[in-house]
Amino acid sequence: MDSHDETSAFRKWLVAIRPFALSASAAPVIFGAAAAVVAGGARFDPLLFLLSLLAMMILHSAANMLNDVQDFRKGLDVETTPVSGAVVRRLLTPGEVMKGAIALIAVASLIGLYIVWRVGRPVLWIGLIGLAVGIFYTGKPVTLKYHGLGDLAVFLDFGILGALGAWTVQTGSTAWLPIVWAVPMSMLVVGILHANNWRDIGGDTGKHIRTMASMLGDRGSLIYYGLLVFGPFALVAAYIVLGVMPRSFLITGLALPMAVTRWRRALNRAAPKQPHDFVALDGATAQLNLAFGLLCTVSLILHAIARRLL
């Protein structure tokens, strides 16, 4: 195989992984680890952090690939979009992508077992729950996505469990704080999925697939999307007023203009200013989620600095 073929193969698998979406799994892990140090009094372990981040992103990649295969086999994904996977683009066969996903799950599981060996059983249970949700998101016999539970699955896996798992890796024990603090960014992760399902309402309904978008319809999906992209900012404000979060989290408001631009794309879905404004709304929402998640982490750092100075 020449170098051109190798590069081509690499690009095919890169498309299969859909790296633009990996911010959804990276953000809660980064945030959870930072929260463990700042609020949980943990001594930061860089190796365990990098391994947990790697395992989470590998599992996310595997879940993306499994989802692409199942959606293709059900006839849900037949037209390519800017964020389509490798199966729909005919770059790889469903069988190849399925084998790749299984290999990634095996690698992530080995990393997870090492973390469990270092940290203990609390991480094991969180990991097993997250793995089960990821596999049965589109895997039989549960197929959470096709029965209206996809939003809940994503909320848990790429929000709550990601932050709680990272906290537990650093502290060695579970706590309610990372769960509560992770809710706002978890809502934005659901926003990514909803934007995707909203775009695909026609195909999903025709195939008798139930998603929140297909159940709500176009108008209801618009309202739901608004709650998902603006709700996190309102929730952070409420947390601060109630004393649940430090005031440094006000800095997350810097991401509000990004939410407004995404909302305008949603409003103009019938007549977009740019051809792919609504089609690629999920990718744009992923960018918002990454910005919001990083600002949450910056908020923790600022809070830690303020405590030292005062």
List the helices and strands and how they pair.
Layout: H1 3-17, H2 23-38, H3 46-73, H4 94-119, H5 121-135, H6 150-171, H7 177-199, H8 201-206, H9 212-242, H10 256-267, H11 281-309
Separation, N- and C-terminal Cα atoms: 62 Å
What share of the residues does DSSP label as strand, in percent? Answer: under 5%
Query: Could you say which overall geometry the principal axes of the C-alpha atoms support?
Result: globular
Question: Into how many domains do the coordinates divide?
Answer: 1
Quaternary organisation: single chain
Number of helices: 11
The helix/strand order is HHHHHHHHHHH
Radius of gyration: 19 Å
What is the number of strand segments? 0
Helix content: over 70%
Mean pLDDT: 88
Structural class: mainly alpha
Largest sheet: none
Can you walk through the features of this model?
- There is one protein chain.
- The chain is mainly α.
- The chain has one domain.
- It is built from 11 helices and no strands.
- Helix 2 runs parallel beside helix 6, helix 5 runs antiparallel to helix 6 and helix 7 packs antiparallel against helix 9.
- The longest helix has 31 residues.
- It is globular and about 60 Å long.
- The N terminus is likely disordered.
Comma- or semicolon-separated keywords:
310 residues, mainly alpha, 72% helix, globular, disordered N terminus
Task: Provide a compact summary of the structure.
The protein has 11 helices and no strands. By secondary structure, the protein is mainly α. The relative contact order is 0.13.
